[in-house]
Design goal:
Layout: E1 7-12, H1 19-31, E2 35-40, H2 42-46, H3 54-65, H4 73-77, H5 79-82, E3 87-93, H6 95-102, H7 109-118, E4 124-130, H8 138-145, E5 150-152, E6 155-157, E7 167-169, H9 174-181
Parallel strand pairs: 1-2, 1-3, 3-4, 4-5
Antiparallel strand pairs: 4-7, 6-7
Length: 197
């Protein structure tokens, strides 16, 4: 298995429309032998949407991974001193979370997880999903692309006609991105189209 005994944190934020793909990838991580610990943002653990109920997603995460999700800043803070993760994936990562991460804000469990993990000099993988990737968040993406120990799942425009500023990660490339990030390398190409494999 590609990820045998790799300790992967999966931090989930509020891009609810991408949850089906996100949870499919969590399943793949477990199937490839990873030990997965989920971390839910405040929005992810409390907001019910047309894509499902928050409580159901929390339960599904626990069923898939065998571990209770981290749901508080206090719980996520221990990632730093314990060094309990090898890699952290923010899946999905909203524009709001990227903006806060860029500016060092740690007001959610997900952002605390990222701060705590980065203090150990270990890789963070961002699987973005934002309607303003080519708008207000473009500067944050650029900053994070040039930040030490931060890597991106390749991404592209998901609906250039109706939502020209929107971009989303190709989550099917999560595992190869993780493997490259563990080597300290960015999976390439970072930006592409749906034909990128």
């Amino acid at each position: 298995m590609k990820l045998e005994n790799l300790r992967i944190g999966v931090a989930i934020t509020g891009s609810f429309c991408t949850y089906a793909k996100a949870f499919q990838e969590i399943r793949h991580l477990v199937e490839e032998g990873a030990i997965v610990q989920t971390i839910f943002s405040d929005m992810a653990q409390t907001v019910d949407s047309r894509f499902g109920k928050a409580a159901d997603f929390l339960q599904k995460a626990q069923e898939l991974t065998g571990h209770e999700p981290m749901k508080t800043i206090e719980a996520a803070e221990v990632i730093g001193p314990t060094g309990c993760l090898d890699i952290l994936v923010i899946l999905p990562c909203t524009g709001n979370t990227m903006a806060k991460l860029t500016n060092g804000i740690t007001d959610t469990p997900v952002l605390m997880a990222a701060k705590a993990h980065l203090r150990n000099g270990k890789p963070v993988v961002i699987s973005l999903s934002t309607n303003d990737a080519l708008g207000m968040n473009l500067k944050n993406i650029g900053y994070l692309l040039n930040s030490k120990n931060i890597f991106f799942v390749p991404f592209g425009q998901d609906d250039p006609v109706k939502k020209p500023n929107s971009m989303t990660a190709y989550t099917e490339l999560l595992i190869p991105t993780i493997l490259k990030a563990m080597e300290g390398k960015q999976y390439q190409p970072v930006i592409g189209n749906k034909q990128v494999k």
